[in-house]
């Protein structure tokens, strides 16, 4: 709808490109992100997402070029994310990535079976073989979140964010914990971080709606919940 109203809208193209990447349609994602860059070459998030698409489609050389380009920007979130990807590519060995994927698959199965002990071991194995990979920490955060171990969950989610400053899902999970514990200032801090990271994550609006409602700001809550829907 946005693009039908305004064809030259690079921000809308960037979000569309990211959605195609989530669906593993890397070719279409790259095509759309290239269009965004042609419209405005000064939007570094496009380079991050396009680098991710090339990385996941197997072209690590092209991905590295794009991440290097993104790392030159002054935006601290973008630069940190680009450097994370560059460290990942430079230190990556195919056999390690294969092991990580096996552990992720195992952890997902264990989580579905509510076997948090075995899932936790799988995530810890990821942390052991690659401490710079946010997926192990994020998984551990999910487990402790489900078990209501709030302090541990926040600690692990923060470690995931340190590894990947664009991990807005981790930021939203921390915000949700703080909302439930009525720490509105901390919840607002992490939701602001998620917005600053340039996320299209709809849960940001949902959580902002809940937060505003708890603070008695009904109109602001309705606005955010409508955006979420």
Structure characterization notes:
- The protein has helices spanning 2-5, 10-22, 26-39, 44-56, 60-71, 76-90, 94-112, 116-129, 134-146, 150-163, 168-180, 184-196, 203-214, 218-228.
- The protein has 229 residues and is mainly α.
Structure summary:
The chain is mainly α. The protein is 79% helix and 0% strand.
The helix count comes to 14
- Share of β-strand residues: under 5%
**Poorly predicted spans:** none
Distance between the termini: 15 Å
Helix content: over 70%
Let me know the average pLDDT.
91
Rg: 18 Å
Write the layout of secondary structure elements.
Blueprint: H1 2-5, H2 10-22, H3 26-39, H4 44-56, H5 60-71, H6 76-90, H7 94-112, H8 116-129, H9 134-146, H10 150-163, H11 168-180, H12 184-196, H13 203-214, H14 218-228
Helix pairs in contact: 2-3, 2-4, 3-4, 4-5, 4-6, 5-6, 7-8, 8-9, 9-10, 10-11, 11-12, 11-13, 12-13, 13-14
Entry keywords:
229 residues, mainly alpha, 0% strand
